[in-house]
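Q: What would this chain look like folded?
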Amino acid sequence: MSTLRDDTATKVSAEVAEVHVQKYYQALESSRSVIPSFFVPQSSMLDGNTLPAIVINGNVISTAEALRDLFVKEMPPTKYDIQCFDSHVINPNYTVGGASKTDGSNGRNMSVLVVVSGTVRLGTGKDNEKRGFSDSFVLVPNPEMSTAKARRKPLREWLVQSKTSRLVV
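A: My prediction, written as structure tokens:
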């Protein structure tokens, strides 16, 4: 098996971050019903904790569906202004459920940390105050992408395993 080169890891993690940031915040603004599709399926870890791990302002959100419900039912319309984002490879040899089925040299078998900051306007009026926010995501490869059947379906190539958000109030 080939090893992942640093330049490939950096390039792929930056591309992954850019696509995720663009699509995720677009969904928060205009397609909130699809929020769960960004996250790994719910599962339990050996220590009893569950994935995906979602925390907003120190409050644990139990599932991706609960996050969607929070945005659909409780959050006013939002407009995000992303000021910056960055990415970093966490694990260059990430595997889902055991041994990897693909060559890791292409950067598709790694976990990526994505850090985002900017402002968000809560509500539709121009007079509504902008507030600062920061998000941290751990993205992992979607295991369904490795099957031929899945490649015929529109799937996200990377999924959120963990998300921590802070809204400056």
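The chain has a mean pLDDT of 87.
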